[in-house]
Amino acid sequence: MASAIGNTARGYSVDVTDNSSMQEVFDEIAQEQGPVDTLIYNAGNARWGNVDSIKADELLPGFDVNVAGLIRAVQAVLPAMRSAGQGNVIVVGAGAALRGRPDTLGFAAAKAAQRSVCQSLARQLGPEGIHVALLILDGVVDIPSTMQRMADKPKEFFLSADGTADAAFALTQQNRQAWTFELDLRPFGERW
Amino acid sequence: MASAIGNTARGYSVDVTDNSSMQEVFDEIAQEQGPVDTLIYNAGNARWGNVDSIKADELLPGFDVNVAGLIRAVQAVLPAMRSAGQGNVIVVGAGAALRGRPDTLGFAAAKAAQRSVCQSLARQLGPEGIHVALLILDGVVDIPSTMQRMADKPKEFFLSADGTADAAFALTQQNRQAWTFELDLRPFGERW
Amino acid sequence: MASAIGNTARGYSVDVTDNSSMQEVFDEIAQEQGPVDTLIYNAGNARWGNVDSIKADELLPGFDVNVAGLIRAVQAVLPAMRSAGQGNVIVVGAGAALRGRPDTLGFAAAKAAQRSVCQSLARQLGPEGIHVALLILDGVVDIPSTMQRMADKPKEFFLSADGTADAAFALTQQNRQAWTFELDLRPFGERW
Amino acid sequence: MASAIGNTARGYSVDVTDNSSMQEVFDEIAQEQGPVDTLIYNAGNARWGNVDSIKADELLPGFDVNVAGLIRAVQAVLPAMRSAGQGNVIVVGAGAALRGRPDTLGFAAAKAAQRSVCQSLARQLGPEGIHVALLILDGVVDIPSTMQRMADKPKEFFLSADGTADAAFALTQQNRQAWTFELDLRPFGERW
Asked: What's the CATH class of domain A37-185?
């Protein structure tokens, strides 16, 4: 089903922590492809470590990428979505958003903050016809780099990137009288 | 998309609080239509009222229908799903499961208990290839009886039954490497 | 601090699932000791087991004791508390209320339902000056029977009954401009 | 009860976003008053506004104060607490941590992140004998500045600062076999 997205995808590079870079890239996208109707925000940076190994200042980039970057992206696409009276903002979150553990101190905090922001956005923009939704990924996605790094794990260990894309796509197709804000995704054998 | 379910639906009557009635109807279904691969549990009974208006004994039927009935249904279909190594159990829950309010004392408690049971089932049966999922309905479904009773409400007030069916259907189609346990559904304009 | 409760405690037996037994015992208490100002509800029954080992009907007594019994007790003491314009209802809940696991299917569901009821009660009765609060016990309480049954565990494994009583007592002493609805209690070394 | 804390309180000024300022002030405190056994972290900054009125960069100071500042403070007191094999870290959080609303976008996100960090800290430091706890304040505290600003509100509208201090003090007195991680505090008449 993921292939339904088509073969005309195009990549654009952007620094999500840089206001002007963000504005420029979305201007470029709008010019080349028309107004954005669906934003999928998957920028993230995982700084692992606990209170003994993390420096306080090292926590801030996680908020800049996961939270402030999301706001920058939403603010860039919002005028066009409002003009259209519709649009989708899908954010890729993580199970860590729901609980802080010693070694995920920084990552969990950034994802918890991001989830809170998604709630704020969904509650404001839903009544305007703009669908804000959050995917809670619980597992390690089966992209080449992680599969290589965890080469001893069986295929069933990994969370499917295709399945995740299908879930994101399904959210964009929902009837607006039955919208989902949040759904979790995990491999069937995952302990949770 | 809901029409993809087909035109060959058949109704069966059952008392979900009666062990032998449950077993009989599922035997009949299996005989006439083959083993059940997807169970959607939507039995519910809403007894409204607060601590001043509810009698303690009146709370028990809510648990019998929403919780024990679910277990009866799951136990009836589980052997066939286990033989097949797959299956879907989709439960129709409610936003009330997440918070108890004065006038939803009995309903919220039954739905909170049902949600807990769904978690227990999902954690046990997921690794066996059986997908247990919970829909959190937040709104009044647009079935004829409710629309008639709330005739002054605009169409946008109601939660779409078709949209809800689409969400349930989508859950049954998920790749098992990316399963959802819980998702919420509400009209786009709903305050939450 | 627990000793501050005094040396004049008296026990009364009651079947919390029996409406008339409940009314009688609270009448007796009121007659002998005056109106109840603090109710601590700790009745519980843990039926362990998962979907394979529990019979649906076996789930119902858990709701009768943990939920309907609580309502019976609250209804028995409520008139006196309302006359006084104050009172405390402290409910002893469990961490299982927050998550359903395979082998706690029945217990977790009953405690989740009880927590929901406590929220309904607190939201209704708080503005009347009656403080409803929930203790979320996360651990095995160090009463003689459990310590004997788990004789191989170190003292630090157990949740202190005295500490739990102190927490309950502290709730009854709170200034009504700073009331707690819910607090968790666990041994310092517990994993959660 | 709050007066039990004594009449020898002393104030120290510090910029919680400045690493060296933090280290200096805690060195000074340790020199003048001995090692810190209880840290109460109440630094906060509320930047109100929604996606239309907040600039992305304005979100970062909230994380610096509520999250990174907490880590700076904990790291400053941790060596002494570890030497003593005990200590208390009490963090003053907010109900906003539990839900993001349109106009609390920045504040709620910072408090959600702070709550996650408190969980990470509590899970790591609890087994070392250091008690990390979170107060969830749900209401407007009755300090002179807020009471003046909301002069039309009755006394019962406000959350008691004394009651909050009592709750914090009670946490520091808990038997370590019955520790609380999180408790909420609100005026008895508050809607929640």
From this structure: alpha beta
